[in-house]
Amino acid sequence: MVDVAGQPNFVPYITAWSSERYVHPAVVAHPRGGIAFPDESLYDRDGDGVLWARMNSAPNIGRPDFGRVHPGRQRRAMRGLLCQVCGGPAGRTDGGVLWLLKDDRGDWPGWPEGMAATHPPVCAPCAARAARLCPHLRGAAVAVRVGDCRTRGVYGSLHRPGGFAAELTVAADDPRARWVLAAQMVRVLRECSVLDLAVAA
Ligand SMILES: [Zn+2]
Q1: Domain for residue 93, yes or no?
Q2: d(CA 122, ligand 1 centre) in Å
Q3: Predicted confidence pLDDT, tens digits, the chain (201 residues)
Q4: How many whole angstroms separate alpha carbon 158 and alpha carbon 171?
Q5: Are strands 51-52 and 180-195 parallel, antiparallel or unpaired?
Q6: For the chain, percent helix, then strand, then coil, each to nearest 5?
Q7: Is residue 7 part of a domain?
Q8: Does residue 165 lie in a domain region?
Q9: Distance in Å, CA 137 to ligand 1 centroid
Q10: Cα 125 to middle of ligand 1, angstroms
């Protein structure tokens, strides 16, 4: 996102910076099945026990790389239901948590009910700003109130004995989750209602 002078002025919390790179320790077999790092720390796994890809943390250093997401900040925002743009609490009412989505209402009847979202929610001020400034959302964004986003999963690389197998999204309680090196946390959006963006803000 750039302002009229072409300068980045609006860098989402989850965006990776040019100074932030994946660190790739060798993945080894876990004694109880699945994969592990040989020097694992508590931070390498989420509360569901899934192993996460490592990326160094150096936000605001270098250039924002809008095409990449920082796995640590994405996970923190998704897990804590923080705004993906500012990192503060996401918008929330009795009706649920606020999400800003690309408007794909033609994709399936009842969209976005059941969507596996990789982008965390937003707060109301950031929803209005992102809908205006974010190139892929401009004129094509819709605000959604999500009553139930309890079901979690991860998007990442499925490993098998002998090596890497595929990129996929799995539910956190799927037995294959032990074999995934996660890059993004997923929440399944249910009890969704589409809002007028002006009302959401
Ligand atoms: Zn925000």
Answers
A1: yes
A2: 5
A3: 444 444 456 899 999 999 999 998 889 999 888 999 999 999 999 999 999 999 999 999 999 999 999 999 999 999 999 999 999 999 999 999 999 999 999 999 999 999 999 999 999 999 999 888 888 788 789 999 999 999 999 999 999 866 778 899 999 999 999 999 999 999 999 999 999 776 555
A4: 13
A5: parallel
A6: 15, 40, 45
A7: no
A8: yes
A9: 16
A10: 6
As for how many domains the chain has, the answer is 1
Q: How far is the CA of 19 from the centre of ligand 1 (A)?
A: 23
> What is the CA(201)–ligand 1 centre distance, in A?
11
In terms of residue numbers, what domain contains 58? 15-200
2 found inside a domain: no
Cβ neighbours for 87, distance < 8 A, ≥ 6 positions apart: 13, 73, 77
